[in-house]
Design goal:
Chain lengths: 263, 164
């Protein structure tokens, strides 16, 4: 932790970075801290409890536009950063990425895409048992009960779009829900339009989602929207394999894609 | 169960294969169920998944999505892209409990007039057995359906409103 503080202070002091996106102690869990000075950097922490996906700030132009930025990246934030690099939303080498390698050797600074990708291959993904359990439980329900479950859950949604704001991959400046010619998704909170919003969100995440669960964690009503995203990740890997490199899974195809429902 | 129920089926088809196929069904004088309304698209790749949800929300009981067989796409790869989209979209609908039995995906070429008639007839029969898809429609009309409740809600008289 002290290593991080001293390194960040050194970088801030020498003007190598203008802003460091990290964590500070919160009431229950660590919360984000955007440190622009050495005094602020003193409050930084970085340990295994720092799991929130800070990569979401990297595409917010009002925060980081024109600035040299460093970031403390958890495993899933690293995955998001890798996708953002693939999608040309970040420039290679423009962001100093601080990560914790799995061998416990302490802090490591990543600069190139290759380093980030290698880290993602070597580091074990945090377990997703809870999410897998949810998916299994929901899949075992009969279809009518599944409908009742999701209709009841999503009827509570009041469309604050916290799930969108928390997602590093939701960086469009104009979102489909703000498009009103044609009005694809009704803007008011009704069960079907809430569902359509989630379907849109998750379809647009196909093969891009890092499965960090930030959407579900951000939901003020605690709706399990991250379970839908998790199911999407599962489906994409099952049907099309691990999404690799450039290109969304939906903007590419394979003639050998398998389905069993087209007559 | 309402025995007089006639399902409304919306068919999203591609211009080059299935639309021509449906045309052939007509010119071959093959009779098929008249419950289907055909919407012509340039390619299956153009058929956005939101269109299917919109169809359900605005009154369709069943949907047919059909285009060229793989490798026959007029634009080379539109149907391959569409197939990918449908694979995950259908899985997602299933996960959310939206009735995927009401959506029939198929490949119908310009020469398969008889197949088109068969697909339409079978889909109409299936959906007739399933009944009207009121769940989704009701969910979509959530506010409209509750107007009465909202109107009768206890509203305090104007002069009592500001008390603090």
């Amino acid at each position: 932790m002290n290593e991080l503080k001293s390194k960040v202070k050194e970088l801030l002091g020498s003007k190598e970075i203008d802003l460091f996106i990290g964590y500070e102690q919160g009431t229950r869990l660590p919360r984000p801290l955007l440190a622009a000075s050495c005094e602020e950097a003193d409050r930084l922490i970085f340990d295994e409890y720092c799991t929130g996906n800070l990569a979401v700030y990297l595409t917010r132009k009002d925060l980081v536009g024109g600035k040299k930025v460093g970031i403390a990246a958890s495993y899933y934030a690293m995955r998001s950063i890798s996708r953002l690099l693939d999608e040309n939303q970040l420039q290679e080498g423009a962001v100093k990425i601080f990560g914790l390698p799995p061998d416990g050797a302490g802090l490591k600074v990543f600069e190139t895409v290759a380093e980030v990708k290698q880290h993602l291959q070597e580091a074990p993904a945090p377990p997703k048992q809870v999410e897998d359990g949810w998916v299994k439980e929901i899949e075992e329900m009969p279809a009518a009960e599944r409908w009742r479950f999701w209709a009841s859950e999503l009827s509570k949604c009041f469309r604050c779009y916290a799930c969108r704001a928390a997602c590093p991959m939701c960086y469009c400046t104009k979102c489909i829900v703000e498009v009103n010619r044609p009005q694809w998704v009704q803007p008011w909170a009704a069960t079907a339009s809430n569902m359509e919003w989630q379907i849109n969100r998750v379809m647009h995440m196909a093969g891009r989602c890092a499965d960090c669960g930030a959407c579900g964690a951000a939901c003020p009503l605690g709706l399990p929207v991250h379970i839908i995203a998790h199911k999407m990740v599962e489906m994409v890997t099952q049907n099309f394999g691990e999404p690799a490199g450039k290109g969304n899974v939906l903007s590419t195809f394979s003639p050998n894609d398998k389905e069993n429902f087209i007559r | 169960m309402n025995t007089n129920f006639e399902p409304k089926i919306l068919a999203f088809v591609c211009n080059w294969c299935t639309y021509a196929g449906a045309d052939l069904t007509g010119t071959s004088r093959i009779k098929y169920a008249s419950n289907v309304k055909i919407v012509r698209f340039p390619c299956t790749g153009r058929i956005d998944f939101m269109l299917l949800l919109k169809a359900f929300a605005s009154g369709s009981d069943g949907i047919i999505v059909s285009g060229c067989h793989p490798n026959d796409c007029h634009y080379t790869s539109g149907n391959f892209h569409a197939r990918r989209r449908w694979i995950i979209f259908r899985g997602l609908l299933d996960f959310l409990g939206i009735d995927t039995r009401r959506i029939q995906f198929s490949w119908v070429s310009a020469a398969e007039g008889a197949k088109w008639a068969d697909i339409v007839n079978k889909t109409v029969d299936n959906v007739r057995a399933l009944g009207p898809y009121s769940e989704y429609r009701k969910a979509a009309e959530f506010l409209a359906g509750n107007e009465d409740v909202l109107l009768n809600e206890d509203v305090p008289p104007k002069d009592q409103e500001v008390t603090q």
